[in-house]
Write a structure and sequence with these properties.
The complex is a heterodimer. Chain A has 15 helices and 18 strands. By secondary structure, chain A is of the alpha+beta class. In chain A, the strands form four sheets. Chain A has an eight-stranded antiparallel beta sheet with strand order 14-11-13-12-16-17-15-18, sandwiched between helices. In chain A, strands 4-5-9-7-8 form a five-stranded antiparallel beta sheet. Among the domains of chain B are: 87 residues, Uridine Diphospho-n-acetylenolpyruvylglucosamine Reductase, domain 2; 118 residues, Uridine Diphospho-n-acetylenolpyruvylglucosamine Reductase, domain 3 (2-Layer Sandwich), CATH 3.30.465; 107 residues, Alpha-Beta Plaits. By secondary structure, chain B is an alpha+beta fold. The longest helix of chain B is centred in the last third of the chain and has 20 residues. The two termini of chain B are 31 Å apart. Chain B has 15 helices and 19 strands. In chain B, strands 12, 13, 14, 15, 16, 17, 18 and 19 form an eight-stranded antiparallel beta sheet that branches. Chain B has a five-stranded antiparallel beta sheet with strand order 5-6-10-8-9. Classes of the chains: A alpha+beta, B alpha+beta. At the A-B interface, β8, α6, β10, α10 and α14 of A face β9, α7, α8 and α15 of B.
Chain lengths: 413, 464
């Protein structure tokens, strides 16, 4: 095999301080499959590695022997703008994709932190979704097909590259969010969107009372904002615009043709008054990215999902003011990130569960915040789902080569 | 299987007499879905009313080793709900209630037997609708739509059914009941729910479905363009997409199709044209005039002749009537036809259409085409004389060749009808053995006993 144990610094591939025994960086799908076959024979535990942006901050799996660096698989395989679809290898960075698409007036409307480093595979494996989730969907909604390797090195493909396809099981959708615990994504086809003619962000500083006033926000979801995000004061310093004095900053974002955006902006101003700040086009896009980058901020992070769709849903969090000001809530998408103080995490999860927020991800951030890692799901997993997950993992990775498999099987955040 | 009076008595005890049909007449009335070529007589037809009843039925079937084939309205065109191995046909049409509807947070929990169009009717007073709109929507059920990951003319802009499913309550192979996903966009186990979409009833029985509802568009404009050359219309479709416009729908009818419709309904369709392209834009009223203008300009550049634009409901309905009646119009001719459901990348539509005519022409057969053009989804109808066995065989071969051509052009063999029984033999042309084995492993993980809709969708593949 031509792909080394690459002369790569294994410290770069540490997860929560745990380094792998070796690092492989295959140049082709076949080489990736070969590494997996060899690992299966040697009973090694493998972590597929993209940009490493979020993995470095994960909890370490029980065993971690080999990092499978996929960044050499970075070709755009096929891109026809008139198909509005793209097929690319999973090691390509989001930054590279964005540049290729922007040149043709299109975009892949999925956000991830640090696009210059984050890879397509990492984004899909995390089912990462940013502030614009409601409008454009998560990776699971945009993936049309994929090529992947099973733990034993079998190369397989499901779906295709056309936008309508009901031939066979959508294993590619199952792999979105599997965090490399079920199979290794190698190539994916995705549905694109035209880049909007105009983007506008309206920024409002509000206090807790205004934030919790349900009537104030009730009409916003029907205006179909591209995003509607609340950032607590503790996060304000990291955003290009945010009120340093108000406890909360609310951002309403709109993307569409000029006439529609003007209409939406006018409607918001009727409801909420003059905004404290307003960003347009590239500046607005930079704000979206800054919001996505916040997820990658140092320290622990808890991520929740909720059917709630307005800023007022954050009100129950006022009981823990310290957490409330460290919250980032993409209200339109029902997705809440909290960057909690270590000790408060458990109480916080219970408090939010009572308010309809389910914990879906807990990132330790640094080894010393391991307390977050031990969070048991507050709602006990369903026994029949756990046995289904066990059977699925046994079916796709019978030798248990993939190090994050046990975590996928337990369905735990 | 051998029916013992005891086993049947257990079923009747579960559902009551009106929920269990085993007379020959009743069983024959359920022997096929809309793919009438494939028939299979169920041993018993069960009509549950609740999730608990479905769970009890599946436990019963699991205990006796009886195959279970779920069925909604039976509008499927691929034989997916035919009980071709006998056993129990699980007819979900009595589970037709909206369980809850949340207009603020914009979702609804529904039972699988609810008719698609009915949900949008019930959501309309709240200014909402259920976006997936397969042509069968006046009769087809939401459970069936999820199982087939149904599309419809408007999925171009609004996405296919899988994009609108938030959560599922599912009865698994052994009768256990689980919730996958939920009301929140990323609720736990949503990834498992996403695999059930498009799984054709082979992984579990959908009993409760949480679907996303979306605001009804404020305005809708429908345009109709005539083309002298079908391929020009296809190229116009690609050009509109490449210009960054995503219409709500782009639908194409060729002359053969117009003739069939015209013979029935006398709508005044432009029979001197080779094709008519219907383009619909929806959304905020303020956005639409500019879109209409750009689409009109682009289609003119590609050879569009007559242009009609309608914004009123009645005018729009008139433009759509021909398109929406076309499947029925083919049925009404009394002539036999094979209806295909292939998909190609949008940029290859013109080639695909030319290939359909060439393949049919080479065998002396006539072909009529309907296209969900914006999605690259083709529905060619290959006409033949049912009494002429040579013609029937030729038409069958042409239809298989058309699907192979879709594969060669980078597409696939089913955009929205599914594989069912109809296309199962072609799956090995779409996928490599390792792909099919991987899907087979997934299926056995969901259904270790192989009793859920057995023999559908995946060909038997020997383990590697």
């Amino acid at each position: 095999m031509s792909a080394g144990p690459a002369p790569l610094d294994s410290a770069r591939y540490a997860i929560a301080g745990v380094e792998p025994l070796s690092v492989w960086r295959p140049a082709t799908r076949e080489e990736a499959a070969e590494v997996l076959r060899a690992a299966a024979l040697d009973r090694l535990r493998v972590v597929p590695w993209g940009g490493g942006a979020s993995l470095a901050r994960e909890r370490a799996p029980e065993r971690y022997d080999l990092a499978l660096d996929l960044t050499a698989l970075d070709r755009v395989v096929e891109y026809q703008p008139e198909d509005m679809t793209l097929t690319a290898e999973c090691g390509v960075t989001l930054g590279t994709l964005r540049a290729a698409l922007a040149a043709r007036g299109q975009e892949l409307p999925l956000e991830g932190a640090r696009p210059e480093r984050a890879t397509l595979g990492g984004l899909l494996a995390a089912n990462a979704s940013g502030p614009r989730r409601l409008r454009f969907g998560a990776p699971r909604d945009r993936i049309l097909g994929a090529r992947f390797a099973l733990g034993d090195g079998t190369l397989a493909r499901t779906g295709g590259r056309v936008v309508k396809n009901v031939a066979g099981y959508a294993v590619h959708r199952l792999l979105c969010g599997s965090r490399g615990g079920l199979a290794v994504l190698l190539e994916a086809s995705l549905k694109l969107a035209p880049a909007p003619a105009r983007r506008v962000a309206l920024v409002f500083g509000v206090d807790a009372r205004a934030l919790g006033d349900a009537a104030r926000w009730a009409a916003l979801p029907r205006l179909e904002p591209a995003l509607l995000t609340v950032a607590g004061q503790a996060l304000a310093g990291t955003l290009p615009v945010a009120s340093p004095t108000d406890p909360f900053t609310v951002i309403a974002g709109f993307e569409d043709d000029h006439a529609r955006v003007d209409q939406q902006v006018a409607a918001v101003e009727r409801l909420l008054g003059e905004p404290d700040a307003r960003l347009e086009d590239d500046s607005a896009a930079a704000l979206w990215q800054a919001l996505a980058d916040l997820e990658d901020r140092d320290g622990a992070r808890l991520t929740f999902t909720s059917p709630a769709n307005t800023p007022a849903a954050l009100a129950p969090l006022f009981d823990q003011p310290e957490a409330a000001v460290a919250a980032l809530f993409h209200a339109a998408a029902g997705r809440l990130h909290v960057f909690p103080a270590r000790t408060a995490a458990r109480d916080l999860v219970e408090l939010l569960a009572r308010a309809g927020f389910s914990l879906i991800e807990a990132v330790a951030g640094t080894p010393d915040s391991a307390g977050v890692a031990a969070l048991e799901p507050v709602i006990a997993p369903q026994a029949a789902v756990l046995s289904l997950r066990a059977r699925l993992r046994q079916a796709l990775d019978p030798a248990g080569v993939l190090a994050f498999g046990p975590r996928w099987e337990q369905g735990c955040p | 299987m051998d029916w013992t009076p005891d086993a049947l008595a257990e079923l009747r005890a579960l559902l009551g007499d009106d929920g269990v049909l085993d007379s020959e007449a009743a069983r024959f009335s359920y022997e096929a879905d809309a793919l009438a070529l494939e028939r299979g007589l169920p041993d018993v037809v069960a009509l549950p009313r609740s999730t608990d009843e479905v769970a009890a039925l599946v436990r019963w079937a699991h205990a006796y080793g009886v195959p279970v084939t779920p069925r909604g309205a039976g509008t499927g065109l691929a034989g997916g709900s035919t009980a071709h191995r006998g056993g129990m046909l699980l007819v979900l049409s009595r589970m037709d209630q909206v369980l809850s509807l949340d207009p603020e947070r914009m979702f609804a929990w529904v039972q699988p037997g609810l008719v698609n169009a009915r949900l949008s009717e019930l959501a309309a007073p709240h200014g909402l609708h259920f976006a997936p709109d397969p042509s069968s929507q006046p009769v087809s059920t939401i459970g069936g739509n999820v199982a087939a990951n149904a599309g419809g003319p408007h999925c171009l802009k609004h996405g296919v059914t899988a994009n609108h499913v938030l959560g599922l309550v599912v009865v698994l192979h052994d009768g256990s009941v689980v919730t996958l996903g939920g009301e929140a966009p990323d609720a736990p186990d949503a990834e498992l729910a996403s695999v059930l979409a498009g799984s054709e009833g082979t992984l579990g029985i959908l009993c409760e479905i949480c679907v996303r509802l979306v605001p009804r568009p404020e305005a809708v404009h429908t345009m109709s363009f005539d083309f002298a050359v079908v391929e020009d219309a296809c190229r116009a479709v690609s050009a509109v997409i490449a210009a960054g416009i995503v219409p709500a729908a782009m639908e194409l009818m060729d002359r053969q199709t117009m003739e069939v419709v015209e013979a029935w309904l006398h709508l005044g369709l432009p029979l001197d044209a080779a094709a008519v392209l219907i383009v619909e834009v929806d959304g905020p009223a303020v956005s639409l005039p500019a879109q209409v203008e750009r689409i009109t300009a682009i289609t003119r550049e590609h050879g569009a002749r007559g242009v009609r634009v309608a914004s009123g409901a009645a005018e729009r309905a008139a433009l759509w009537r021909g398109r929406k009646s076309s499947f029925g119009a083919y049925g009404r001719t009394g002539r036999a036809f094979y209806l295909m459901d292939g998909t190609v990348p949008r940029s290859r539509l013109a080639e695909a259409v030319a290939t359909v005519y060439a393949l049919a022409g080479a065998r002396g057969l006539r072909a009529g085409i309907l296209l969900h053009a914006g999605d690259g989804n083709l529905h060619p109808h290959i006409l033949f004389d049912a009494d002429d066995e040579t013609q029937r065989q030729a038409a069958f071969e042409v239809s298989q060749e058309i699907l192979r051509a879709c594969l060669r052009l980078g597409g696939t063999i089913s955009g929205e009808h599914g594989i069912g029984l109809e296309k199962i033999s072609m799956m090995s042309e779409v996928y490599a053995p390792a792909d099919l084995q991987t899907m087979g492993r997934l299926r056995r993980a969901f259904d270790p006993g192989g009793l859920l809709n057995p023999g559908k969708m995946l060909p038997e593949v020997r383990p590697a």
